[in-house]
Amino acid sequence: MIRASHSGEPETMWRAVLEGGASAPRRARHEITEHLNGELGSERTLDAVLLVGELVTNSVLHAAAGAAHEIVLELIIGLDDVRVVVTDGGSPTVPMMQAVDPARPGGRGLFLVDTLSDRWGMTREGTHETRVWFEMDRRDPSRFERV
Asked: Would the pLDDT of 8 be above 90?
């Protein structure tokens, strides 16, 4: 991990370049689990791992991030929140949240990101790069219970 500060606040940054392809989501989930080090508490960590898997799966499916392509995974642990960024080689289509259709498999990745994260967004460099990020507030586990 790289220790850095962008806004005067201490942050811990970690970055990995993953080989694309079908195994990329599993590797991304493993890496995030290993590097979060309990910073979000157990339930929020499980949510973050799920969301990373969804975003990397989107990269594989929609940006055609096959084994010959790279997916960049970044983790920034700040004092108040954790940010995860997934960057891929882009695609002609713009990522957008779809209406959930129980009759149709898939299409729930960004819905889950919107539901489980505290903030999220994305930036694009034309069709050559897509960066999707989400943030989760670090909460005192004694004050936070999922209902």
From this structure: no
Domains parsed from the chain with CATH numbers: 2-142 (3.30.565.10)
122 closest CA partner among 62, 77, 67: 62
CA dihedral angle for residue 89, residue 72, residue 49, residue 124, rounded to 10 degrees: -40
Contact in structure between 25 and 56 (CB atoms under 8 Å): yes
CA-closest candidate to residue 96, choices 83, 109, 85, 115: 109
Give the whole-angstrom CA distance, residue 57 versus residue 51.
10
Return d(Cα 22, Cα 1) in angstroms, integer: 26
Helix (H) or strand (E) holding 82: strand 81-88
Q: Is the pLDDT of residue 31 over 60?
A: yes
pLDDT digits (tens, 9 = 90+) for 19-29: 999 999 999 99
- Which helix H or strand E contains 19, and what residues bound it? strand 11-19
> What 3-state DSSP class applies to 27?
helix
* CA distances (Å), origin 121, targets 106, 130, 134: 20, 11, 7
